[in-house]
Specification:
It is built from 14 helices and twelve strands. By secondary structure, it is of the alpha/beta class. Bound molecules: pyridoxal-5'-phosphate. Pyridoxal-5'-phosphate binds near residues 131 and 176.
Length: about 400
């Protein structure tokens, strides 16, 4: 018998994952080259060479009891120091090693933050569309997810509604920029406005509201667009970062959280989050990967490859008559379904071996997400199939 609390999680098991399984069946039937699977955000660009070289070097030259051993639950001090210095150089922040806790990717980092701050019944505000796992993470700690409806004209956060949704129970707000599933980067103007609403509400309600910045796509921004560093705009910001996409290491499960000194109750938060990291069952982030990150601190993914895909898919779909805003970051395209029920459109896509994720998997029905972290050929070869799909709707 499973626990009652697990039952809704099982019932709502990830549609994206199910789509991936479906893709495997189609690949077995038609051959992988004839299936256009845009369902999963699994980086198509390999990890930079530095990663392989660092692994080999570390395994050959560092004492096994160090490289494979336990360390402080927050992670290796030297690794945290290296990352802090890199952030300070890039963003003009003033972090020290103690402000960082190494985590098992962003998913675990978000769980650590929420475990650290949520009491049962506390509200966490999110902007639709959003990564649906946020709901599960918040429910893990008996929090309540509060959704703000999307502004489908821009997919920037709907700040007028946001203001209305903040209550005395609001403990945190999660933002994700560059954004999954729209590829939107929140502008500095948006961030400033968001920060000023939060300041105002904290004053008015006499509460502390943490801004959680979920940043797995920070490095994936195109056309030279700036991705503002949120701790500089709002003191009660906590950052959750991941190397899953930035260094193409999603299976290695490595990331970190940042709790700046300026955040309310910073010292207590850092101490509690370190313990949350341990008692969540992660204990500490993978040791070898921590050391790899420190060695590859300046390594970058091949953003040009994603950009090439972005242009080809965006231009190709627009030419066929599909509606979509041009993404500035991440590796997703959020396309308006030609029919109100986007699941019908997703099913029609499958007839042409095109796999897309329904927008309802991101609390935004009427749209579909295409993950363009695939081979360039997949995009080029998919366009004739999309043409057939478009003909069904646009004639
Ligand atoms: N947050 C968002 C918005 C994501 O899209 C993902 C993964 O796709 C995650 C968090 C989790 O990332 P990680 O692999 O670092 O746990």
């Amino acid at each position: 018998m499973i626990a009652d609390k697990m039952k809704p999680f099982v019932k709502n098991n990830s549609a994206i994952r199910m789509m991936f399984e479906e893709g495997n069946k189609l690949r077995a039937k038609y051959g992988p080259e004839n299936v256009f699977d845009f369902s999963l955000g699994n980086p198509s660009v390999p990890a930079p060479d530095c990663v392989r070289e660092a692994i080999i070097d570390l395994v050959n030259n560092v004492e096994p009891t160090v490289i494979h051993g336990y360390m402080s639950n927050a992670g290796f001090e030297d690794v945290r120091q290296t990352i802090a210095e890199s952030l300070n150089k890039r963003f003009g922040t003033a972090f020290a090693a103690k402000n960082l806790i190494m985590t098992v990717g962003a998913a675990s980092g978000l769980n650590v933050i929420l475990k650290t701050i949520l009491n049962p019944g506390d509200e966490v505000v999110v902007f639709a569309p959003y990564f649906l796992e946020y709901g599960s993470y918040v429910r893990n700690y008996d929090g309540v997810l509060v959704e703000v409806t999307p502004d489908t004209a821009t997919f920037q956060p709907n700040l007028a509604e946001f203001k209305e949704k903040i209550t005395p129970k609001t403990k945190a707000v999660i933002v994700n920029t560059p954004h999954n599933p729209t590829g939107v980067v929140y502008s500095e103007e948006t961030i400033k406005e968001l920060a000023s609403i939060l300041e105002e509400k904290q004053q008015e309600l006499g509460t502390v509201i943490y801004l959680i910045s979920d940043e797995p796509y920070r490095e994936l921004a195109y056309d030279g667009v700036e991705v503002p560093y949120l701790t500089k705009y709002y003191a009660n910001t906590v950052v959750g970062y991941s190397y899953s996409k930035s260094l193409s290491l999603p299976g290695e499960r490595i990331g970190y959280i940042v709790i700046p000194d300026e955040a309310d109750g910073s010292e207590e938060l850092i101490q509690a989050a370190t313990i949350a990291n341990r008692i969540s069952g992660a204990v500490n982030a993978p040791s070898l990967m921590q050391k790899v990150i420190a060695k590859c601190i300046d390594a970058q993914t091949d953003i040009a490859a994603y950009d090439k895909n972005r242009q080809a898919l965006y231009n190709g779909l627009k030419e066929l008559g599909f509606e979509c805003i041009k993404p500035q970051g991440a590796f997703y395209l959020f396309v308006k379904s030609p029919v109100p029920d986007e699941k019908e459109f997703v099913n029609a896509g499958k007839e042409f071996n095109i796999l897309m994720v329904p927008g309802s998997s991101f609390a935004c029905p009427g749209y579909v997400r295409l993950a363009y972290c695939v081979a360039y050929e997949t995009i080029i070869n998919s366009l004739p199939q999309f043409k057939k799909l478009a003909e069904r709707y646009f004639g």
